[in-house]
């Protein structure tokens, strides 16, 4: 993992990646500055009110009291709106970054390991939202708000402004020293967190094998060690956070005490008015309040800084833009395509040449291990070929916009994942535009008679393998893609179900590419060379 960036550089990259970041920042800063102005109004009104009462118990207080109440109301509104409004604006950033992370995974594979990708896309993106909604605005206000308050102090009392300014200038020395230590602890904690996520995933996936070799206890012991390492780095981060908060509180207290001492002496010799002294004394701690908040938010958003660095580093290498995808079922040409097999790379494999006419049905035939799945994934744009090119209506597939091309393609792998709690959720996959009538009609065509609200369990395990296969096909068909790519759609099906599925595939009008061991009448077949098979696994 790369080290965390400076906040300014990281914020600039976030703004380029997601324009929504700037809107969240502007709203938060405006509300923060409004609160700062209200603080000055409160201090001035309260100081004037107390000074008037001290000099004359029967003085008119209506003007000062009105100003104080208005400033208090304004500050209350700004504070109450600040976090909810900023969080609401920042939440689309979370969705946008998750979508971009998913696009990156579909384009180029996982960001590191699969478990590290899950960690970044879940807790990492949540932490980035917290970083945008809380830390970045507090960091900007830590610069702007003290400057405004110091400006007011300079206009009304240069002595107090000088004392506060000296104490504020001492802060960078402490913050640089503590910030370097915090950065190191933050990076170490994020690495341990990713390591724990990855190791936990490995243990869960391999638990059957570990149990069979009686090694499960050793794996759990190692998992405890990784968890303990994360606990130690977390406590180290908390210690640094406590130390930085203590340094800020100490400087703030010293500045307030020195200002109070000087103000008291000047009040005694009559060189300063009471209302001015009270206003200065009330505003002095407020100069340090934004600085204390930004320091606390820095440690609270430590994961967000590390996660943003990792995520943006991967997104910066992603190919964006490109030509628009076709609007009608396209013609796909395979021109001297050399397949990049998952288990090997053989640059001298016999190239594949074929032309798949738009709207036609084409089968890919060949023994197991010949590369049928790899060829289908290459057509979908999920894998780059070692050589040659894939043309879509005469355009290079690599030149098309990846996002728009994926919207045109429906892909049914050999082992499809079926997330969702009910039949409706599994088929829709978050697309509410797919209505119940469409789902029921599509299921009837493949012989599925299921209630749309029927609970299916995790991964639709309540269904048989054949039912899951047909439901995955229904999920592809209801989206009305322009290209339908199916890998063994007839596997796990009884003869009657296989007949129904074959009929559905034949009736469809989009471009269809099907890899299957069973005979399926098609317009043409793409045969992978036995020589190529002999070199495979």
Q: Describe it for me?
A:
- With 537 residues, this protein is of the alpha/beta class.
- The protein has 2 domains: 7-315, ABC transporter transmembrane region fold, CATH 1.20.1560; 332-535, Rossmann fold.
- The chain is built from 16 helices and 9 strands.
- The strands form 2 sheets. It has a 5-stranded parallel β-sheet with strand order 6-7-8-3-9, with helices on both faces. A 4-stranded antiparallel β-sheet has the order 2-1-4-5, with no helix packed on it.
- Helix 4 runs antiparallel to helix 5 (158-205) and helix 5 (158-205) packs antiparallel against helix 7 (216-268).
- The protein is elongated, with a radius of gyration of 32 Å.
- The chain starts with 6 loop residues before the first helix and ends with a helix.
- Residues 342-348 and 530-537 have low confidence and may be disordered.
Task: Itemize the secondary structure elements and their pairings.
Layout: H1 7-17, H2 20-55, H3 62-108, H4 114-156, H5 158-205, H6 207-212, H7 216-268, H8 274-300, H9 302-315, E1 332-338, E2 352-356, E3 361-365, H10 372-380, E4 387-392, E5 395-396, H11 402-408, E6 409-412, H12 423-428, H13 436-445, H14 465-477, E7 483-487, H15 495-507, E8 511-515, E9 524-527, H16 530-535
Parallel strand pairs: 3-8, 3-9, 6-7, 7-8
Antiparallel strand pairs: 1-2, 1-4, 4-5
């Amino acid at each position: 993992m790369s080290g965390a960036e400076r906040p300014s550089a990281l914020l600039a990259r976030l703004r380029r990646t997601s324009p929504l970041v700037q809107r969240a920042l502007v709203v938060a800063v405006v509300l923060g500055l409004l609160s700062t102005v209200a603080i000055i109004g409160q201090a001035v009104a309260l100081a004037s009110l107390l000074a008037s009462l001290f000099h004359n118990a029967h003085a008119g207080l209506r003007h000062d009291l009105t100003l104080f109440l208005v400033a208090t109301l304004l500050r209350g509104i700004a504070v109450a709106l600040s976090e909810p409004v900023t969080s609401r604006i920042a939440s689309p950033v979370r969705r946008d970054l998750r979508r971009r992370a998913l696009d990156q995974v579909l384009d180029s594979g996982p960001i590191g390991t699969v478990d590290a990708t899950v960690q970044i896309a879940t807790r990492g993106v949540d932490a980035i939202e917290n970083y945008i909604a809380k830390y970045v605005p507090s960091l900007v206000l830590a610069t702007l708000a003290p400057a405004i308050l110091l400006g007011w102090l300079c206009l009304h009392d240069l002595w107090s402004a000088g004392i506060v300014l000296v104490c504020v200038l001492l802060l960078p020395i402490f913050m640089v020293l503590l910030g370097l230590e915090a950065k190191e602890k933050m990076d170490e904690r994020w690495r341990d967190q990713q390591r724990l996520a990855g190791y936990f995933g490995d243990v869960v996936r391999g638990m059957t094998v570990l149990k069979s070799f009686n090694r499960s206890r050793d794996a759990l012991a190692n998992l405890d060690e990784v968890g303990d390492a994360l606990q130690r780095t977390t406590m180290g981060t908390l210690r640094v956070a406590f130390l930085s908060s203590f340094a800020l509180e100490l400087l703030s207290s010293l500045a307030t005490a020195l200002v109070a001492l000087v103000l008291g002496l000047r009040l005694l010799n009559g060189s300063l008015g009471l209302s001015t002294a009270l206003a200065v004394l009330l505003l002095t701690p407020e100069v340090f309040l934004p600085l204390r908040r930004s320091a606390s938010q820095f440690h609270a958003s430590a994961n967000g800084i590390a996660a943003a660095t990792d995520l943006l580093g991967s997104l910066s290498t992603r190919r964006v833009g490109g030509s628009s995808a076709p609007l009608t079922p396209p013609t796909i040409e395979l021109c001297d395509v050399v397949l990049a097999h998952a288990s090997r790379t053989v640059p001298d494999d016999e190239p594949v040449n074929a032309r798949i006419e738009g709207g036609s049905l084409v089968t890919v035939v060949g023994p197991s291990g010949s590369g049928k799945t790899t060829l289908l994934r290459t057509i979908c744009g999920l894998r780059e070929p070692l050589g040659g090119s894939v043309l879509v209506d005469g355009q290079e597939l690599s030149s098309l916009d990846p996002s728009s091309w994926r919207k045109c393609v429906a892909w049914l792998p050999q082992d499809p994942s079926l997330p969702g709690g009910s039949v409706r959720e599994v088929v829709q996959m978050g697309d509410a535009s797919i209505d119940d009538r469409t789902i029921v009609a599509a299921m009837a065509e493949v012989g599925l008679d299921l209630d749309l609200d029927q609970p299916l369990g995790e991964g639709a395990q309540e269904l048989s393998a054949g039912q899951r296969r047909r439901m995955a096909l229904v999920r592809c068909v209801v989206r009305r893609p322009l290209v339908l790519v199916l890998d063994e759609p007839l596997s796990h099906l009884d003869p009657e179900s296989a007949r129904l599925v074959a009929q559905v595939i034949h009736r469809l009008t989009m471009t269809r590419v099907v890899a299957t061991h069973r005979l399926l009448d098609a317009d043409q077949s793409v045969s992978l060379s036995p020589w190529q098979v002999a070199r495979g696994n």
